[in-house]
């Protein structure tokens, strides 16, 4: 059995032109490549220079990533519409408060409508956001007013989600947009259509359908697999099916069938972002992140690996054939040769989920020898924007003001979002763990999503008890007062939109400037690999956040383009890119940036709270 690390070694030496972003296959006059050392071609056959080639490649990655996340949002909106119109489907509105909030953002008057009628109106309005041709996406109004004004001034407020993605593909076609700065402005518009559009729709409507996450305990790593239970592992990104698998795995008839096959029960565990979804809402265990999908199969204990879309390795069929594992695909968008396919739509999801669980149960007696690692860690996850709001102020005084106050007084220096994939080019999990460890040691609160959160959960960072062991004194004081870990797990990769909302709430709470770009915050993706990460990174940069990527960024083939995104972009949108493969140096860049923002805000030095007596109050100048 080959693993991702074996195949990564076989790719050495990698194509230097590809890693630098200076190969072009936009037409068949090529493929073309630019020699970065000036010894060979300086232009492509059509005359494209290095900065144009790099820009087009980068922008197409933004479009690809935005398309993936936004299509996820479309699927969730369709499922909400089904839940509203067909109560027999198994889907229903779980969070009425979130439904009312989203309806307000979308401009829907609840009037005398039933919950189902409001849900149908929300779903239809959300679906219209994809195809609209003019105007502005509704969720844009969640951003600070200063940020909205900046976007409007640059004419980059997204009009419709699909429109911006299609236009990005058009602009990057051979012979269209040939100015790298102009391309990058539309890349911002496309990325914003993801972060403040498709991804935000996915997150918000999943909360409506499946419940808004709140802190929940769970466990992580391959040790969560069971020797005695039927193990069903879900892997992918869209929780529309996994929610039904949860119900099917708890069905008394399924449990009886499992017992009849010699199993003690049914164990549903997750890989990648589907794992995060079922953890946040059900406390179910996580078997691992993206690079552990083959390793889970290699335990010999996985009776069915059930996948939907995104980050599923084409190697899974050959890995599964080495063991008894049944590989099952469930999305018409994601078939894999060698896997069994269940053609699942939301309308038949519960029935199909039962059939899948039945297949796994009947496969249980076919197990051979198993080798399940014993390692597993506790974690606390589920820190949605709403959960943080409540955690800091309670039901009636929920506010981000306590967070801002502790940033102002210096107990917390700032906030960093550390997100993204894992990459076999670097030692497994190390960049995530080393970066986050350094940040929390320097009193920077870390918010995580996706595979990065799973990496740090395995390192033990996601439990409250760990704060005094690994975090700085100030951050530890806050964590112990609130009862939270120094690293907050907010969800899957589409849930980076939760971080956007949280940053906007920090601005609204006051004391830290008038825009996201004023905040002492930063973003990082230490081991990114997917186009989705590029789209995420760019919507954070375009929202005003300093964002650092590890491993490398395919832009180094053009000094002009690199200078634009690493330096010039900050003057345009308040955020900028950086790249630094070394986790220690990456932490240094983030810490320096946060300290620089603190100095500009006039809070560079720690200040303790002072309890004013009446004499001190009388002397205050009003």
SSE arrangement:
Layout lengths: L3 H7 L5 H5 L2 E2 L7 E2 L16 H36 L10 H10 L9 H17 L13 H9 L7 H11 L8 H31 L5 E5 L9 E6 L3 H11 L2 H9 L5 E6 H11 L3 E3 L4 H6 L5 E4 L8 H6 L4 E4 L10 E2 L7 H15 L13 E5 L3 H13 L3 H8 L5 E5 L11 H12 L2 E5 L1 H9 L8 H4 L2 H10 L4 E3 L6 H14 L11 E5 L5 H12 L3 E4 L9 H15 L3 E3 L3 H19 L12 H5 L4
Helix pairs in contact: 3-5, 3-7, 3-8, 3-22, 3-23, 4-5, 4-8, 5-8, 7-8, 8-21, 8-22, 9-11, 9-14, 17-24
Name the strands of the widest sheet in spatial order: 6-5-4-7-8-9
Which stretches are low in confidence, meaning pLDDT under 50 for 5 or more residues running? Answer: none
**Radius of gyration from the CA trace?**
24 Å
- Supply the CATH architecture of the largest domain: 3-Layer(aba) Sandwich
Count of individual domains:
4
Number of strands: 16
Structural class: alpha/beta
Which term fits the overall shape? globular
Main sheet record:
6 strands, parallel
What's the number of helices?
25
Beta-strand content estimate = 5-15%
> Could you tell me how far the N terminus lies from the C terminus, measured between alpha carbons in angstroms?
73 Å
The third-level CATH topology of the largest domain is Rossmann fold
In CATH's first tier, which class of the largest domain applies? Alpha Beta
What is the overall pLDDT average?
94
Give an overview in words.
The chain is an alpha/beta fold and 622 residues long. It is built from 25 helices and 16 strands. Strands 6-5-4-7-8-9 form a six-stranded parallel beta sheet. Strand 15, helix 23 and strand 16 (577-579) form a beta-alpha-beta unit. The model has no long low-confidence stretch (mean pLDDT 94).
């Amino acid at each position: 059995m080959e693993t991702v690390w074996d195949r990564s070694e076989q790719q050495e030496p990698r194509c230097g032109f590809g890693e630098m972003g200076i190969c072009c296959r936009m037409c068949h006059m090529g493929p073309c490549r630019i020699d970065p050392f000036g010894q060979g071609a300086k232009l492509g056959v059509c005359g494209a220079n290095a900065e144009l080639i790099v820009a087009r490649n980068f922008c197409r990655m933004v479009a690809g990533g935005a398309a993936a996340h936004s299509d996820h949002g479309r699927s969730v909106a369709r499922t909400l519409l089904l839940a509203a119109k067909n109560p027999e489907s198994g889907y229903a509105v779980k969070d009425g408060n979130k439904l009312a909030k989203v309806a307000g953002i979308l401009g829907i008057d609840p009037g005398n409508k039933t919950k189902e009628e409001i849900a149908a109106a929300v779903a239809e309005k959300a679906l219209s956001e994809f195809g609209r041709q003019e105007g502005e996406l509704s969720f844009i109004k969640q951003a600070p007013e200063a940020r909205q004004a900046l976007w409007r001034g640059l004419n980059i407020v997204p009009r419709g989600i699909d429109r911006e993605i299609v236009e990005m593909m058009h602009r990057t076609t051979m012979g269209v947009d040939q100015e790298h700065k102009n391309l990058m402005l539309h890349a911002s518009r496309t990325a914003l259509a993801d972060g403040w559009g498709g991804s935000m729709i996915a997150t918000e409507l999943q909360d409506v359908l499946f419940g808004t996450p709140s802190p929940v305990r769970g466990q992580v790593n391959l040790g969560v697999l069971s020797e005695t239970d039927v193990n069903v592992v879900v892997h992918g990104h869209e929780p529309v099916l996994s929610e039904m698998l949860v119900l099917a795995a708890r069905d008394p008839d399924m449990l009886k069938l499992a017992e009849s096959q010699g199993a003690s029960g049914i164990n549903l565990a997750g890989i990648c972002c589907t794992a995060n979804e079922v953890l946040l809402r059900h406390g179910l265990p996580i078997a691992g992140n993206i690079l552990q999908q083959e390793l889970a199969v290699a335990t010999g204990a996985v009776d069915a690996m059930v996948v939907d879309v995104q980050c599923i390795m084409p190697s899974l069929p050959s890995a599964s054939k080495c063991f008894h594992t049944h590989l099952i695909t469930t999305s018409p968008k994601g078939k894999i040769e060698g896997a069994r396919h269940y053609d699942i739509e939301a309308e038949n999801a519960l029935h199909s989920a039962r059939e899948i669980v039945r297949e796994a149960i009947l496969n249980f007696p076919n197990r051979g020898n198993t080798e399940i690692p014993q390692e597993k860690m506790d974690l606390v996850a589920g820190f949605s924007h709403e959960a943080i709001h409540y955690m800091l102020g309670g039901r009636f005084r929920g506010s981000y003001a306590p967070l801002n106050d502790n940033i102002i007084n210096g107990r917390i220096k700032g906030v960093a979002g550390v997100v993204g994939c894992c990459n076999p080019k670097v030692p497994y999990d190390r960049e995530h763990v080393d970066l986050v460890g350094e940040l929390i040691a320097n009193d920077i609160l870390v918010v995580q999503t996706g595979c990065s959160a799973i990496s740090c959960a395995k390192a033990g960072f996601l439990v409250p008890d760990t704060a005094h062991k690994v975090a700085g004194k100030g951050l530890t004081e806050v964590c112990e007062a609130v009862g939270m870990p120094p690293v907050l797990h907010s969800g899957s990769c589409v849930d980076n939109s939760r971080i956007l909302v949280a940053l906007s709430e920090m601005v609204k709470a006051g004391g830290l400037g008038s825009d996201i770009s004023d905040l002492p915050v930063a973003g990082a993706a230490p081991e990114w690999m997917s186009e989705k990460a590029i789209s995420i990174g760019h919507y954070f940069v375009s929202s005003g956040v300093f964002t650092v990527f590890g491993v490398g960024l395919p832009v180094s083939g053009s000094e002009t383009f690199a200078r634009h995104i690493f330096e010039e972009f900050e003057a345009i949108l308040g955020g900028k890119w950086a790249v630094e493969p070394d986790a220690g140096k990456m932490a240094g860049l983030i810490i320096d940036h946060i300290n620089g923002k603190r100095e500009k805000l006039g809070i560079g030095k720690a200040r303790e709270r002072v309890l004013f007596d009446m004499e001190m109050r009388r002397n205050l100048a009003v």
